[in-house]
C-alpha cells in the first residue's frame, strides 16, 4: 500500500539487527518483516543463544555472535540499532564506516558532540542515518499539520505533552543506569520535545526543567517537568517519568480551538488510532483515522529514502538539533537553571 504512490521498487532492503532488545523483538523486527520494502537478513547478539532463538522465531537467515561480524557482512544493506543509549554513538559510527545505512533508536546519542560526529560519519560514508521516532510517521501527524496550517484552530498559543509510565521496581533496567544514558528525559521526554519541534517547525530559544533524581535508581531523572520557550511567545510544557501513572498525550492549544491526542506516541490498536479530538468553541469533532503500524511506516519510509531517493520525513540534521535541546534540558534539571539555546 505504501509504495504504490512512489517509484517502483526493484529490490528490498536487507536489514541487520544489532541486539535482541524488547523494542526490536516486539515492534521493529515484526515491522520490517511486514514491510513492503525490506526484510531482516541477520541478527547479532553477544548472547548467541538469544540471537538464535530470535532468528528461529522470525525465520531470520543469519546469526552472528558479535555486532562486528554482522557489519562485516557485505550483503547487509542497513542496520537497526536498539542498543542501550551509550552504545548508539559507537555502533552508528562503525556501521557507517562499513557503509551500512542506520536506523538508530532514540535518543540518537548522549550529547550534541556525539550527534554531530554521527552525522558527519554518515555524510562522509554516504549512508543514511535516521533516528527512530516512529510516532511521526503515523498519518495522524500529517492531519494535525493540515489542521494547524488551515487556521481552523486559530493561532497556536501553546502545546502540552506527557509521557509517563511506572517501571521503578525493575531497578536493574538499563533505563536506570546513569552511565548508560538512562533517565526519563532521554527515554520518554524526548517524544513531546520532538513533537513540539516537529509541529511548530521551529526551535526553542530556552529551556527550564525541574526533575526528581532517584538515589534508588543510580540518580537518574525518574520524573521531569519542563518548559520550552519557542519564538512568538509559544511554549511547550511537558512532563515525563518512569515512576508515575501511565500517560502519553499531546494537546495543541489555539486561539479558536484545540487538538487533543489521547494516545500521542503509542498506537497499538484501533482505539489508539482514534487519536484526534478537535474542539472548537463548544463543538467537538472526533477525527478517526485507520489503524496502521507506525513502525512499518517508519521502516518503509527509511527504505524509500535509500532505494528511491525520497526526501526523509525527519532529516538527520533535525535529530542533531533535537539532541541539542535534550542535552540542554538535562543540564537545566541538574543545575537548576534556565538554559538558553
TrEMBL record:
Keywords per UniProt: Oxidoreductase
Keyword Oxidoreductase: yes
Domain Gfo/Idh/MocA-like oxidoreductase N-terminal: residue ranges: 13-129
Domain GFO/IDH/MocA-like oxidoreductase, residue spans: 141-260
Residues that span the membrane, as ranges: none
Family classification: Belongs to the Gfo/Idh/MocA family.
The protein, known as: Dehydrogenase
Amino acid at each position: 500500500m505504501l509504495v504504490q504512490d512512489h517509484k517502483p521498487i526493484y529490490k528490498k532492503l536487507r536489514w541487520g539487527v544489532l541486539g535482541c532488545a524488547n523494542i526490536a523483538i516486539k515492534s521493529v523486527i515484526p515491522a520490517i518483516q511486514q514491510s513492503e520494502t525490506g526484510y531482516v537478513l541477520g541478527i547479532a547478539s553477544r548472547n548467541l543463544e538469544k540471537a538464535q532463538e530470535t532468528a528461529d522465531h522470525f525465520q531470520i537467515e543469519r546469526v552472528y555472535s558479535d555486532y562486528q561480524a554482522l557489519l562485516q557482512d557485505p550483503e547487509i544493506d542497513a542496520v537497526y540499532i536498539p542498543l542501550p543509549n551509550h552504545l548508539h554513538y559507537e555502533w552508528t559510527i562503525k556501521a557507517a564506516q562499513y557503509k551500512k545505512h542506520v536506523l538508530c533508536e532514540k535518543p540518537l546519542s548522549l550529547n550534541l558532540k556525539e550527534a554531530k560526529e554521527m552525522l558527519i560519519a554518515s555524510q562522509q560514508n554516504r549512508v543514511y542515518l535516521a533516528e527512530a521516532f516512529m510516532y511521526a510517521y503515523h498519518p495522524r501527524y500529517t492531519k494535525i499539520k493540515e489542521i494547524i496550517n488551515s487556521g481552523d484552530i486559530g493561532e497556536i498559543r501553546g502545546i502540552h505533552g506527557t509521557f509517563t509510565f511506572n517501571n521503578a521496581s525493575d531497578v536493574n533496567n538499563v533505563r536506570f543506569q546513569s552511565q548508560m544514558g538512562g533517565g526519563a528525559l532521554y527515554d520518554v521526554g524526548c517524544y513531546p520535545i520532538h513533537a513540539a519541534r516537529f509541529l511548530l517547525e521551529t526551535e526553542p530559544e530556552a529551556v527550564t526543567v525541574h526533575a526528581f533524581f532517584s538515589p534508588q535508581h543510580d540518580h537518574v531523572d525518574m520524573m521531569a517537568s519542563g518548559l520550552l520557550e519557542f519564538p512568538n511567545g509559544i511554549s511547550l510544557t511537558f512532563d515525563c517519568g518512569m515512576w508515575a501513572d501511565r500517560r502519553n498525550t499531546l494537546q495543541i492549544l489555539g486561539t479558536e480551538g484545540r487538538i487533543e491526542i489521547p494516545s500521542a506516541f503509542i498506537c497499538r490498536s484501533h482505539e489508539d488510532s482514534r487519536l484526534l479530538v478537535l474542539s472548537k468553541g463548544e463543538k467537538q469533532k472526533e477525527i478517526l483515522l485507520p489503524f496502521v503500524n507506525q513502525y512499518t511506516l517508519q521502516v518503509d519510509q527509511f527504505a524509500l529514502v535509500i532505494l528511491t531517493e525520497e526526501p526523509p520525513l525527519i532529516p538527520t540534521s533535525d535529530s542533531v538539533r533535537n539532541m541539542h535541546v535534550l542535552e540542554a534540558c538535562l543540564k537545566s534539571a541538574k543545575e537548576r537553571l534556565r538554559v538558553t539555546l
